[in-house]
């Protein structure tokens, strides 16, 4: 075993520049070989996670401008318009290269989290008129978690 890992003895190595992600990946591979997670346990974990938020309602995608709208010939950088519906709550979202612009109907204040898979979500706030904005457009799959009063609604996952 090499005790010099990460101490700067590698070519060009500097302890302050050591990349933890390389070490983490090597440790994950070693654990997968030496002590793999049993398939049954992995499935139990997935099933348990699926039930972690039973009170959450899923907002169904009812409109997507990529699918439901006729494209305008010659238009460049057209925003993507999305509408989600969960009971009486409607979430309208415009996705552009500059970020998100949205509106809740009926208008109401809410906390909104932009979910990006395993990464922590980005927090947004809808004002009293239900309007919200996000400065960074989502990259890759995303969903919105909307918290209004005592209700939690999560939109379907989409690819940006």
Name a few traits of the molecule.
globular; 160 residues; ten-stranded mixed sheet; 3 helices; Immunoglobulin-like; alpha+beta
Shape: globular
Question: What portion of residues belong to β-strands?
Answer: 35-45%
Alpha-carbon distance between the two ends? 45 Å
CA-based gyration radius: 22 Å
Largest sheet: 10 strands, mixed
Write a brief structural summary.
This protein has a domain at 57-159: Immunoglobulin-like (Sandwich), CATH 2.60.40.
Structure description:
The mean pLDDT is 81. It contains 3 helices and 10 strands. Strands 1, 2, 3, 4, 5, 6, 7, 8, 9 and 10 form a 10-stranded mixed sheet that branches. It has helices at 20-34, 39-50, 65-68; strands at 57-64, 80-86, 89-96, 99-105, 110-116, 119-126, 131-134, 141-148, 151-155, 158-159. The chain is globular, with a radius of gyration of 22 Å. Helices cover 19% and strands 40% of the residues. It is of the alpha+beta class and 160 residues long. It has a domain at 57-159: Sandwich (Immunoglobulin-like), CATH 2.60.40.
């Amino acid at each position: 075993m090499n005790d010099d890992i990460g101490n700067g003895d590698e070519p060009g190595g500097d302890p302050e520049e050591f990349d933890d992600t390389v070490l983490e990946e090597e440790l994950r591979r070693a654990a997968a070989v030496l002590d793999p997670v049993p398939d049954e346990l992995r499935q139990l974990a997935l099933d348990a996670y699926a039930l972690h938020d039973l009170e959450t309602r899923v907002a169904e995608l009812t409109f997507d401008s990529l699918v439901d709208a006729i494209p305008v010939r010659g238009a460049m950088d057209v925003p993507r318009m999305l509408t989600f519906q969960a009971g009486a709550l409607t979430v309208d979202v415009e996705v552009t290269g500059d970020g998100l612009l949205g509106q809740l109907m009926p208008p109401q204040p809410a906390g909104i989290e932009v979910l990006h898979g395993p990464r922590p979500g980005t927090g947004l706030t809808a004002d009293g008129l239900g309007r919200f904005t996000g400065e960074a457009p989502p990259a890759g799959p995303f969903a919105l978690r909307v918290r209004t009063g005592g209700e939690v609604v999560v939109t379907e996952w989409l690819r940006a």
